[in-house]
Amino acid sequence: MEDFMEVRVRYRDTDSTGRIFFSRYLEFFDDAVIEFFRGKGIIFDGAGHLFLDGQQKEATFVVGECQCRFLDETFFDDLLEVITELKELSERKVILGFTCYNKTKGRICVQGSMILVCFDPVSRRSARVPDEVRERLLRGKD
Question: Dihedrals φ, ψ of 110, to 5°?
């Protein structure tokens, strides 16, 4: 199951060479995670709490690992499409894949992934992905 998010490269996203500063892609991926979950009806509040149908869950997700491969340069005012895909769902983690497509140039500029570990904020340890969250994430997945 894929989700799409468009981003216009702003001046503040660029470095002294006019190219997008590398860490901005991780910010785009982070925004894409929120939108991916939102599209499944899984909502995060400003404190990182996880909600399903207005009910707070006992667990949330934290980033355990992220990876980014740069394939092409991107500049101010380019229009990007971040495609987010569920790659793997295990007992305690979610792996999302990202493809950043430069719509202005018609090319893939970045690919990456992020491992989200299900986390119990009370015990401060990894936790099982709640069944309701698992069902929402798998909805529409072949």
Answer: -150, 145
Q: What pLDDT, in 10s, does the model give residues 46-87? A: 888 899 999 999 999 999 999 999 999 999 999 999 999 999
CATH of domain 2-138: 3.10.129.10
SS3 labels along 31-75? HHHHHHHHHCCEEECCCCCEEECCEECCCEEEEEEEEEEECCCCE
pTM of the model: 0.92
What are the boundaries of each domain within the chain?
A: 2-138
| DSSP conformation letters of 57-126 | PS-EEEEEEEEEEE-S--BTT-EEEEEEEEEEE-SSEEEEEEEEEETTTTEEEEEEEEEEEEEETTTTEE
Q: How many CA atoms within 13 Å lie on the side-chain side of 71?
A: 13
**Nearest-5° Cα angle at 137, 130 to 67:** 100
Q: Looking at this protein, which amino acid is placed at residue 123? A: S
